[in-house]
Design brief:
The complex is a heterodimer. Chain A is an alpha+beta fold. Helices cover about 15% and strands about 45% of the residues of chain A. Chain A has helices at about 5-20, 70-80, 135-140, 200-210, 265-275, 325-330, and strands spanning about 1-5, 30-40, 40-45, 50-60, 60, 65-70, 85-90, 95-100, 105-110, 125-130, 160-175, 180-200, 215-220, 225-230, 235-240, 260-265, 285-290, 295-300, 305-310, 320-325, 340-345, 350-355, 365-370, 370. In chain A, strand 17 (about 285-290) and strand 18 (about 295-300) form a beta hairpin. Chain B has 15 helices and 13 strands. Chain B has helices spanning about 5-15, 25-35, 60, 70-80, 90-105, 125-130, 130-145, 160-170, 180-185, 200-205, 215, 220-230, 230-240, 270-290, 320-335; strands at about 15-20, 40-45, 55, 85, 110-115, 115-120, 150-155, 175, 255-265, 295-305, 310-320, 345-355, 360-365. Classes of the chains: A alpha+beta, B alpha+beta.
């Protein structure tokens, strides 16, 4: 292995793949990044066995194909500090060291055993769907936050985002059992029916990776156990969560009769103010609609209270209900629509937050269960 | 590994963990309160027309295949003559609180998982109350005698095994897994019984020819991690009965109390009552000052011979009312304290299990599934 590449290409590759590096505490080899040169391409791979990232960057091959594994942390540090735009990387004849040469600087780095590197599943042949990159990113941004934190391990299925493909539509859903985010997106072509449950944290990473790319579309591929997201430069593999996902359609209250029409900005900033004095345990913000006005308030024994009138854009029937303010803020600050409607029924039934017309958040809806005040 | 570590791991091997699981809790409470329901299939859950699900089913109802989290409509098809009751969560919560007080009288290390099950670490309680097995049996007996409810108890060296043990014999069971019995207990256990193995993982394991925990033990740590990622490591540990997770008690209950030591031992009931009144007012003033209410009223009495006792009772509703508080404290002093002619040296009144009116707030959940409130 002996090649020359640009510093910028190498840095991009190492940073992007580096997101999947394992901690090395269970299996030391997972802290390593694998470099493979084939023809005029360098493939960088990192994995924690939950997911894997492969990044391909162009190189000038000077001494044949080859592979090596070295500490991902070390490589990340070094690539960030290389003095010259041209980088020359060479495997020592004995095969035990990697030399990185740039400008007047030379690094000789120790390798990790190549044979220990786990064999990762091949990218399957069968394409499931193709989606525009910005659309996938938007769908990820509007759903991944709503999943249950992976620290809570007893409900493995709720730590995932449920991706359903049907016809030309993709539907992404995430919920922590108290609130639920759903986004529908259009695919580039008709897809076979399929459902995939993928770890939400892995998908947050995928969102960051996609943000650094220029590619127009992303191709989804699958084998039985993994979902692959492929662009010309990057392959992101995520292990599927092998659990049943709850039936979400039955908890979406599409018939709620009371619609609060609100300016999203005004609603969001009022909630952010009310959030300051919520009781820490419940985070409850109280909504009171009376005589056509909406009052948002909160109070806590330690801090005091907040109260604010938020203008309703259309008249609405009276109701008193309370929600965890943070849950609504989570959704509202990611939405882009100027106007939203918050559909309610009664103090113990779920509320439905939707964009009010417009293109910006089309296909997005958000369900939130209230807090019962005894 | 230093000597200290060795000693620590020795101690860990010898942990005594109880898992107490109430039998069909909500349904049993309803059957206890309404004798006409005893022996009948009872379902506690949401109404079928509201697409409700079963929160609990009595053992009579389970014979028809009715299970928790099943849609009520389906449950009623399986057993059309079952009695369907709406859950009375406040009532179950109060009973659960009383069960918790029984636990807390043996160990502060109580980790409630839900209203009807909890882990108790009684390792350190053995010196006070005798062997863990006796503690477990006494808790079981007291829950039955004081609350008229049965439970299943598991005793084992860790949480995972204790839960398996309580599940081993239900209802009204008591199962002990001793360290030397772990391997035999796990060997023939179906893989589904391992914590965290859902139906899908179980299918995958079976496809690999792994039906029992004994089968699973044949795979190396690396193979399991390779196949199941980070869950693989947990599977490997569980298959060997390893579980180092500690019992994590609830946040320490905040309490308020006032007490008075008398210059001379008091024998006169009226004088004691006068002091009780004074202390109660002080405690209630403190409570109000903090904007809190108390669920539990406690009194403390030290006799002339320095014997000290505490007595407590749980109120129907959290309170900051001086009348309610005093009523409860007087009742405790009159009915639950055996003076036996001894003079009283110290009298104390306490408010425990304090709640913020705001923390009474309850985040409702989207899915009525076990584990979510």
């Amino acid at each position: 292995m002996d090649f020359v590449c640009t510093k910028s290409a190498l840095t991009f590759g190492v940073r992007t793949a580096g997101r999947a590096l394992g901690s090395g505490s269970t299996m030391p080899i997972l802290a390593g990044m694998k470099l493979e040169v084939q023809g005029d391409q360098l493939r960088l791979t990192a994995t924690d066995l939950e997911r894997a990232i492969h990044v391909t960057v162009p190189v000038e091959n000077r001494g044949g194909d080859g592979a090596a594994v070295l500490s991902g942390q070390l490589l990340t540090k070094i690539t960030g500090m290389l003095p010259d735009e041209t980088v020359h990387i060479r495997l020592a004849e004995a095969g035990d060291k990697l030399t990185i040469h740039s400008g007047e600087a030379t690094f000789e780095l120790l390798l990790l055993p190549l044979d220990d590197y786990p064999e990762l599943p091949e990218v399957p042949e069968q394409t499931v769907a193709t989606i525009r990159r910005e659309r996938l990113m938007r769908a990820l941004e509007l759903t991944t936050f709503a999943a249950m934190s992976a620290k809570e391990t007893s409900r493995l299925n709720l730590t995932g985002v449920d991706i359903t493909l049907q016809g030309e539509r993709a539907r992404l859903v995430a919920t922590n059992g108290y609130r639920l985010a759903l986004k529908e997106e259009t695919l580039e072509s008709e897809a076979p029916e399929g459902e995939f449950l993928v770890d939400a944290d892995a998908l947050k990473d995928l969102h960051s990776v996609l943000g650094g790319l220029a590619d127009e579309t992303v191709t989804l591929l699958t084998n039985a156990g993994h979902l692959f997201f492929q662009t010309p430069q990057v392959i992101y593999m995520a292990r599927l969560i092998q659990e049943e996902y709850p039936d979400v359609e039955r908890v979406i209250p599409r018939e709620n009769p009371i619609g609060l029409s609100l300016s999203r900005e005004a609603f969001l900033s009022a909630l952010q103010r009310a959030e300051i004095t919520t009781a820490p345990e419940s985070g409850a913000v109280i909504f009171e609609v009376q005589d056509g006005t909406l009052k948002i308030s909160s109070s806590s024994a330690e801090k005091g209270q907040t109260e604010e009138i938020v203008p309703l854009l259309k008249p609405a029937a009276s109701i008193k209900i309370s929600f965890r303010g943070e849950y609504l803020i989570d959704a509202l600050r990611r939405m882009k629509s100027p106007e939203v409607v918050f559909w309610l029924k009664d103090p113990e039934s779920a509320g439905l937050l939707e964009p009010a017309g417009g293109e910006e958040d089309q296909g997005f809806l958000y369900v939130c269960m209230p807090i019962r005040m005894d | 590994m230093g000597k200290g570590n060795e000693r620590r791991s020795q101690r860990q091997r010898e942990r005594k963990i109880l898992h107490v699981d109430m039998d069909a809790f909500y349904a049993s409470v309803e059957q206890r309160d309404r004798p006409e329901l005893r022996g009948k299939p009872v379902i506690v859950g949401g109404r079928p027309e509201e697409r409700g699900v079963v929160a609990a089913a009595s053992y009579e109802a389970r014979k028809y295949g009715i299970r928790s989290a099943m849609p009520t409509a389906r449950a009623l098809r399986l057993c059309p003559h079952a009695v369907l009751l709406r859950p009375r969560m406040g009532h179950y919560r109060r009973i659960s609180q009383r069960i918790r007080e029984i636990f807390l009288s043996y160990t502060p290390w109580v980790e409630p998982l839900s209203l009807d099950e909890a882990f108790l670490d009684v390792t350190g309680s053995e010196r006070l109350f005798g062997p863990a097995e006796r503690i477990g049996r006494e808790i079981k007996r007291r829950i039955f005698q004081e609350l008229g409810l049965t439970c299943s108890v598991g005793l084992a060296p860790n949480k995972f095994l204790a839960k398996l043990a309580s599940d081993h014999q239900k209802p009204d069971g008591f199962t002990v897994i001793r360290p030397e019995e772990v391997e035999g207990f796990l060997r023939d256990l179906p893989v589904e019984k391992l914590w965290g193995v859902g139906p899908a993982t179980a299918r995958k394991l079976r496809a690999l020819g792994l039906r029992t925990v004994g089968d699973l033990r044949r795979l190396s740590k690396e193979e399991l991690i390779g196949r199941f990622g980070k869950w693989g490591l947990r599977l490997w540990e569980r298959a060997r009965g390893v579980d180092e997770r500690p019992v994590v008690p609830e946040r320490e209950p905040k309490s308020l109390s006032r007490e008075t030591t008398f210059p001379q031992d008091v024998h006169d009931d009226r004088e004691l009552d006068q002091v009780l009144l004074q202390l109660t007012h002080e405690v209630v003033e403190d409570l109000k000052g903090e904007g809190r209410r108390a669920r539990t009223v406690q009194i403390k009495v030290r006799f002339a011979d320095f014997t000290t006792i505490t007595r407590q009772c749980t109120l129907a509703e959290p309170t900051d009312s001086p009348e309610v508080f005093l009523g409860a404290a007087r009742k405790l002093l009159r009915e639950r304290v055996e003076r036996g002619g001894r003079g009283v040296r110290l009298l104390g009144v306490g408010a425990r299990n304090l709640v913020d009116p705001e923390t009474e707030a309850k985040q409702l959940s989207l899915f009525s599934l076990p584990g979510l409130p």
